[in-house]
Write a structure and sequence with these properties.
This protein is an alpha/beta fold. The protein contains 7 helices and 10 strands. α3 links the parallel β3 and β4. The protein is globular.
Length: 213
């Protein structure tokens, strides 16, 4: 696969199977109570069992407490923890040192100044993720189906491979990669047939597009 892909917010065995069969590099589980993709820890652990050894298991949290990261680390044993809130570099370091997990730090982007904030985390995390800034009505950061100007990332270099997210789907993935130069991509709503309902056929189509990108 020329572009590595992460399928985020899975909640069914069928979605996991489609992700693995299609060659996804990462499978993500969401632990944000107000998200339509929120999943119970024990259910995520069952779904993650076949992922181990075939793709990396990612636990997504937003401004988690120490108790929450301890619970996720012990109950799921993920490969990475994705921090999708307002976590400072200091907090990111605390979480990685506390859990022993590598981190993905998601940054909300609407203009070049948002991309510049990546410098504070570059080298601290395993992967940076650039996602569309959520609506001002207090929506969740991620999984909204919104995108941003992909050319803001063109020519950018970071110490580790980074991920592009926000509004991606099987039909715009090639253009997004071409404009941004992204080596990795993340999708959630773009492979759903309804809020939180992953469509195995769309997952397959997205991973096929990533393979060709």
């Amino acid at each position: 696969m020329s572009v590595q892909a992460k399928i985020c917010g899975v909640s069914t065995p069928e979605a996991v199977r489609a992700a693995l069969d299609g060659g996804a590099g990462f499978v993500g589980f969401v632990f944000i109570p107000r998200s339509v993709r929120n999943i119970a820890l024990d259910a995520a652990a069952r779904l993650a069992a076949p992922v181990c050894g075939r793709a990396k298991v990612v636990a997504l949290a937003m401004n988690p407490t120490d108790a929450q990261v301890d619970e996720i680390a012990a109950g799921l044993k993920p490969d990475l923890i994705q921090l999708h809130g307002a976590e400072t570099p200091r907090r990111v370091r605390e979480i990685t040192e506390r859990t022993g997990l590598a981190a993905i730090k998601a940054l909300s982007v609407s203009d070049a100044s948002d991309v510049a904030k990546a410098a504070d985390y570059d080298g601290l995390v395993e992967h940076l993720m650039f996602d569309a800034k959520p609506p001002k009505d207090g929506g969740l950061p991620g999984g909204t189906g919104h995108s941003f100007d992909w050319t803001l990332l063109a020519g950018r270099r970071f110490s580790r491979p980074w991920m592009l997210a926000g509004g991606l789907n099987p039909w715009n993935l090639a253009e997004a990669v071409q404009q941004s130069g992204a080596p990795m991509v993340d999708v959630s709503s773009g492979v759903e047939r309804g809020p939180g309902l992953k469509d195995p056929a769309l997952i397959t189509a997205f991973l096929d597009a990533a393979r060709r990108a």
